[in-house]
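Worked example (supplementary).
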Amino acid sequence: MESHDIEGAAELTGRRILVVEDDYLVASWLTGILEQWGCRVVGPASTVAEALRLVEEGGFDGAILDVNLRGEQSGPVAETLEARGVPYFFLTGYGSPALLPEALRDRHKLFKPVKASELRMAVQRRLAKR
Amino acid sequence: MAGRPEASDGGAARDSRARWWQTAGGIALLYLGAAATWILVSDRLVEIVFGVGHAAAIAQSVKGLGWISATALALYLLIRSSMRAERVALARAGQLEDLLHAMTRTMDDVFWISEVDPKRVTYISPSIERLWGRTMEELIADPMKWADAILEEDRPGVIAAYEAVVRDPGSGIFEAEYRVRRPDGSVIWVRDRGYPALDSTGRVTRLLGLAEDITERRRRQEEVREREQLLRKLTDEAPGVTYQFQMWPDGRSAVPYASERIRTVFEVTPEQVREDASAAFARTHPEDLAMLQLTIEKSITSLEPWQCEYRVILPKAGLRWLEGRSTPERMPDGSTLWHGYIHDVTERRLSEEALRRSERALKESNERLQAILDNSPNVAIQGYEVDGRVAFWNRASEGLFGYSAGEVMGRRLVGTVLTEEDEEEFLRIVRTAVETGEPAPAREWRTTHADGKPRWCLSSIFPIRFGDDRALVVCMDVDITPRREVESALRESETRFRQLIEAVREVFWMVDWETGRTLHLSPAFETTWGLSRSAAYEDPMVWTSIIHPEDKARVEESFKRDAARGKFDIEYRLIREDGSLRWIHDRAFPILNDRGAVWRVAGVAEDITDRKMAEHRQALLMQELDHRVKNNLAAALSLADMTARHSTTLEQFQEVFTGRLAALARMHALLAVTRWHGVRMDELVLRTLEPFLGAGGCDVQIDGPAGMLSSHVASPMCMALHELTTNAAKHGALGSRDGRLRVRWEMDGPLDAPERLRLWWEERGGPPARSPREDGFGTTLIKGAIEYQLDGTVESRYEPEGFSCRITVDFARTSELAGRWGSGPRGSGDEARTEP
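After joint prediction of all chains, the assembly is encoded as:
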């Protein structure tokens, strides 16, 4: 299914993606599917601290962030990414943006549960641009 | 009627007894004697003269004597009956004469008889002396004395009238009224009448007369005339017309008499209508004419008084209203004559409406007054002696106290109507009233009715003095029991209300709207606001002082604008002095005075902090639930995807995935029991191993405390236990008849919030554990769940005796920074396995 990318979509092979997700099953699925598309997964990180450490290390092209990480908001991670100009989007179970820091409410989001095709399109559009 | 000149000797002894020969018996006897003598003597003579045979002569005598006796008897009867009739007639004549005499003697009227030629008085009754003052004899002796007594101015007329009757009897009777001067100088009026008696040639021979004293009647007539004049004057002066109206069956009508006022009331002269009333009728308003005629006709037939109010149109005065009343009488000629009065009522008609209106108002006001009086309670009135004994007791008192006057009269009220204490007070008041002579101030008393129930009355007590030594005290009572009962009910309800508002948590408050003054504030204010009530009474707006700064302006504004309109209904926050935040729901409603203006404002302020918190929790919970459902779905999808990757057949996928999903569902069921608070460790273990317990296969031992796992720990723990169980069933002790499984755990810290978990999973008696197992994904899941998600550790051993595993989770670290999960969830369980 990767053979006919949507117009403007970038090639995913070799893209390095940071995955921040505390649920093992979801993180594991994300990792699996991204690798299937040829991406290299950085992480996954299940806590804010871990995520921040990985952002500090760098070496990735984009990030997928869960909002709630064991009760902590991933806002600081997003802010750091913005400061460094690294593209990212949220993947969240929250229907309401009210739980996001105000500055991040209008950022791009995908809602759980997400379809693989939706996820791929978001990764191509948001994270694979050069 | 004939008189007798010698009647002066009256009815003398006319009834002297008749002699015997004058009687019938006597006459018959004389006849018998004479006839018998004649027969006997004549027979003797015949015998002597002619010498007839002796025997024949005797027979002749006897026959003759018999006949004579019979005729004598008939004669006797005839004479007797005729004499009796005559006697009756004589007796009657005598009585009549006696009556006449008696009358002439006693009556004041004078009878007289005078001969015409020569002129003389032949009879005059004795009453002449009383009337004329002259004796009968005087007048009989000198007939002219009669005319002399008549006043000179009347005399010629009287004589002329007398002469006229005498000369020409056809002119009727002699009749004159004249004055007579009596010897004592007084003058009387006499009415004299004479009826002529004629002889066979038609000449008047005598006059039979009757003279009567009419002085009194004349005087009365004079009075009547004077009165009539006065009446006429009055009727002429009266505002209306006094009139007589006459109507004949043929429709003619006339006004024989009308007072002068007819000139203004009808604008006609009395003369104009004297003979014909049509000029007055012509004034009638055309619309009222038929009605007027109808009322007149009705009065004619019924002879009931005529009464009518109708309009006339007068040449000068224009339209006027008249009212008339008159009384009819039927005249001999068949006409009807009314005597009546008609007057102008235009002014009255004009004011009548106004009058009716005010009368109606008066009537209504009377009725109201009557109603008030009727509905007023009866005033009970009693009189008391100075020592308190009842001297008077009216009916209303009987009603008020239930004792009849007979029962209480002369007794004191103590023990019946009044208690000892009250009676003492009553006596004191009575004495004071008597001493000072002043009424006592009105006072309310609690009395006891004969039925035992209390009656309240309002009493006015005042003294009355009789003479110097006796005084009575009057007491007037009005029953105010219903009012007292209402008051008492009101007090009771007020107390209840006060108790209520002082007991409840809500703050009740009331302010005077005009002054802003706090009138009432319930004790709950102190616990809710944390301020003293006295502070609130001092400063009515103190309640706003601790309102959250974000809410304060909004609340104050709404209070000013809405409280008096009943629209103050607001939620706001308080920050109390101790720093705690309270949510308040405050409502106000206006209380109006009798003029409908806002008088007071009352309100209820309720501490709704708990509700607000609950609402907040609820909102969070809903969001959390949504979050979890979505996360769970995401996890389930991931699980499905990954299970699919590691499944070789669809059947295998279905079995494994269904098992994993069912385990998650069981865990959620347990979570739901505690409202997502957590899951008890022992229940989770038991539930997971349930299908294998007591099934006759592997011996399963479970041992560990009932510590609580929080929701985010429960899910990965459930997943790990499920995978361990599945593996054991497939490859280990659970699938073996002789297998033994021992699950044991320890938990540090309090059971409701444990800090650490250590779990040992030991399989024995089954096939030897081989490392790695064929189905590596299960093992990967265990490690991922425990190590990635919970920051715990999993140590697995694959030994010939069987598989064993030790899991350690530090709950304190699960929400803190956690280490990375090994080489990452790459799908291949083999790489993730920590080898022993």
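Two points are worth noting when inspecting this output. The longest helix of chain A spans residues 24-36. Helices of chain A lie at 24-36, 48-57, 75-84, 116-127.
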